[in-house]
User: Fold these one by one.
Assistant:
Number 1:
Amino acid sequence: MDCPQPFETASFYQALLGGFISTEDQSADWINLFEPSGRQILSIQRAENYVASTWPDNTVPDQVHIDILVDSHDEAEPAVFAACGG
């Protein structure tokens, strides 16, 4: 996954999904997220000229879409906001 801030992005997904990230180096250009079992589930890399999607107007189209299955949206929503510091 391309992004401007790999450590922050990896930390968000780690807070959301659990597991562990491959480094604590906040300046790393490439970070992997692993399940607790050790299986790699996501790779995140710095893209210096990253341009975020402008969905839904599609001027800059979606570049990745991740679906996360939850048991309850009412329970999951606060966890997502907490993971992003909101």
Number 2:
Amino acid sequence: MRCPFCKENEDKVIDSRSSEGGRIIRRRRECLACNRRFTTYEKIAEGFKLTVVKRDRSRVPYDREKLISGLLKACYKRPVSADAIQDLADKVEEEIFRRFDKEVSSIFIGESAMRHLRQIDKVAYIRFASVYMDFKDAGELFEEFRQMMEEGEKAATEDEEKSDEPNSKQPKLF
């Protein structure tokens, strides 16, 4: 495999993992010339014919790069690593391939991406949602933001309540 940094052909595989039920193999490699690491993905191309049904009912071939491109735009200048974006795309694809064989709706893909992105970075989630959900005005965007904030406050309150509960595993000091 050619190193993306120094363009040499000599490398070694450090780690290999399969995902999507063995449809894709992720390999971490180290260049023997410059000692930098990079990731490659191997997938079967000919049996992979998933079609995306868009909102206007048109059909286009599924393209992982289109999903990653949207995620990269949402995460622009955010503290989200490229590996985290790849992992998020892996999770979305895993959900797709677990549930669909030939056709998947763009709505399912967008909602799955938003659900995972929300757990990683709230600002990136709002950016992605603002494009995906096609808000008609600032009020709709604000309402989505408000709901997200309320859910975050509710989760924080639940975490505080759990920490206040006596834990039978910890010894009582007083």
Number 3:
Amino acid sequence: MWQPLLWAQQPDTADQGVKLIIKPHICVAPRGESSCISWIDVFWESDQATDLCLYVSEQDQSLKCWQQQLAGSHRHHVTLINNLDFWLASIQNNTLLARSTVKFAALQPHRKHNRRRNALPWSFQNP
């Protein structure tokens, strides 16, 4: 089975003491396909125990919430056709604590070259 091309991501965090790491950071659809199917691994850690929830741009409700935790993780299966945002928000006041994006990319189909094949340099042609 073909696996999409994946890269790990550098954290993109707000200045709240919470780090959010999403893997993969980029999901590349196979050549000729318009979507990328992948598991997204979400990891977060905080300097202090906190109450927060994980959200994703494709859903209205939180994916998962944690109370009085220093770290957490979640695995989410997606079919990407566009970039996908993940973020952590405080349970108490819905303040954005950290945000990160999985970027979608699609390989372009091969172009057929309609050029005439050049004669080889050692070919002999009759006049």
